[in-house]
Amino acid sequence: MTDTAIEAAALGKRFGGPSRSGGWALRDCSFRLPAASICAVVGPNGAGKSTLLAHAAGLLEPTEGTVTVLGAHPSATRERIAYVAQDKPLYPQLTVAETLRLGLELNPGRWDASLAERIVTDGDLDPRARIRALSGGQRTRVALALALGKRPELLLLDEPMADLDPLARHQLMGTLLAEAAEQGTTVVMSSHILGELAHACDFLLLVGEGRIRLGGAIDDLVAAHRLVTGRGPLTDALAPHTVIESRATGRGLTALIRPAGPVAPGWETAEPSLEDILLAHLRSPDAPALLTPSASVRSGSSDMSAAVTG
Amino acid sequence: MSASATLRRTSGGRLRGPYWTTVRLHRPILWTGLALVIAAAAVAVFLRVSAAAFPEKQWNCIGACPDTFLGFASASVLLETFADFFAVALLFLPLLIGAVVAGPMIARELESGTYRLAWTQSASPARWLATKLAVAAIAATALVLPLVGIFQFLRAPFTGPVNRGWVQRGVFEAYGPVLIAYSLLAVAIGALVGLLVRRTLPAMAIAGVVSLSMPMAVGTVRWDVFPVRTVTGEGSGLFVGAGRAVDIGRDSFLMQSGYVTASGERLPYNACWRRTRDMETCPADLNITSWYIDFHPHSHFWWVTFAETAIMLALAAAAAWAAFRLLRRSAV
Amino acid sequence: MVEYRIDRRSGVATYLQIVQQTKQALRLGLLEPGDQLPTAREVVETTAINPNTVLKAYRELEREGLVEARRGLGTFVRRSLGAAAAGSPLRSELAAWASRARASGLDRDDVAALFASVLEEQFAERPGAGADESGAGQINETEGDKA
Fold first, then answer.
1. What is the pLDDT of residue A306?
2. What is the pTM of this model?
3. Considering only alpha carbons, which residue of chain B is nearest residue A104?
4. Closest by CA position to B255, among listed B269, B274, B271, B236
5. CATH of residue A17
6. How far does A192 lie from chain B, in Å, by closest CA?
7. Does the UniProt entry include the keyword Transcription regulation (chain B) (predicted)?
8. Complex ipTM more than 0.90, yes or no
9. Nearest CA in chain A to B16
10. What percentage of chain A reaches a pLDDT higher than 70?
């Protein structure tokens, strides 16, 4: 067993072949996701979130670098992962019941029929209804039932809640988190908005322009930043710290910083919310990336992953 | 609890794992194939019974025969016409099979994105493709075999002691092995094209055309490529077609005949006739020393069947191998 | 059984909301010694928050001696917070003061700000006490920022 769910080392993916320049969907992505985390992958549309998840699901081969899932190459861990793509692919000609039967047939020995059935019946879905007749939210529910019924060790969900109404979103997220907590499942959820994920997740990867901009346990990331307000000029007082973003507020200045020591007296400091941190980073694309120690690749294990891939 | 009971209710009997999935996903196509066989069998039985129940009262009528059967001269004529049509129709089975495998079975999964569902279950993508190929191959065989049987049943009244049909396009393939080999090749071509093109309709069109072109192209050159048997004789007089023909066997297939000159050059069968308007009289300046006949005896049927089947199965294996290679590159 | 309601916009840390709502239930007598708190799974299922957040809140309550975890059984209330229970003299005094404040023209925010500043003065010398005595929803925000 391994305490690492996903580890990416200098992962890069270019679509459309080497002739097309600038087609990198991911570039130089390195991070480590500890097992049993509930991880939010956030970032603007087109940042590379889906590409990242598809690599972990074993559906894409990296152009460069490696990705290791549950200690092995993604193709060797199909049984232990579940993946729900953004468009929730399902076979339209099957009924709901037949879709769950498919989960049983394709995952013999792992399939938890009662859990999958519970998720479906919680949504008042007719088991005899054809998938093509379902609404987007109902399809999402069936796709999640299929993913959870597999009892995966790693659950990869690409924009899982986008199609759901608020009530179903809350209820499904609750079920998902309760099951994950009970089974020790690592969950990775991508979203272009933080929203509900902020309370559901304890780990965060902020992806921007194909790179990891922030990575780490949410508590650690929040602790690494300070919101400071004061009246002095920016340069002198905040010089020792990394300033992510600063804005004039009236006569003073509000800035999000990564303190490198005590903040000069006269500045009022406060703990930023996760949303403050994300927004500041999104508004400042040039801010340096930050990976907390728990999110950093360990050199030893990345060597091993290279050997596995090779 | 009734919902839960419905969820647990199983259908599909003994099929398990990816086989259940593949058969369930393509159930309408499989039913269509079965319906095709049943319809063909029903028509065949109807025509055979009709031909037996309404024997020919007259033939060789001048003008329209007064008593017709469904617009044909007789039930027997309709049976024979239908048998001819059926032989040609059988040649289009590879088109159908290639198109179905390439489009609905493979490319549609890639086009609609359901492959991301299939490939992230416990069964690997290679298993996914292998199952599809196996189901398609079994289904294709189960479709072609009864249709071949139905064709033999249709033409049974017309195969007398002399079998001259065995070289005909359609009839030759419809003896069984060759058509099955082309159908299996169509399965492999369909898989390869489906994975290459990744879009349902273009994949169906391309795979259908390629699958059909194989038997069509080979059927055109089949008897030219396989080595002929040749008989020769002195002089120019004894010649085939004049009633005093050398006996090459009544069910042999004559390819070419003619004269051989002193220099060894072959002249066409009508070389003398063109000059003298007489097959038997040859001008001396042609220096004809002997005659020849190139032909395929009926025994070649089995050799050609064997060779063609083997080549097509080898091509099918190569195409399937290429499909797996391609899959390995597109999946991880 | 208490049911937690997580206010995602309040800015108060989620685990603190659980701590505060548990204490509120203790003060109001909705929870009494021996009562069982909902399991982490139940809380997660109804609130859709991270399981670790629930565990963190329960650990905090345990650290303060209010609840105890019994292995395999669940988390149980050890003692109540009776001081501000409904009907206690302190509460009626506060209610009387609040109605006087309202009669003198203070609005809800003014009262909350006044109360918060007095709270700050009175309890400033006790570090870590912020989460302890905060009860009413309006002052959670200041308490949360301090924590």
1. 39
2. 0.80
3. B17
4. B269
5. 3.40.50.300
6. 21
7. no
8. no
9. A105
10. 91
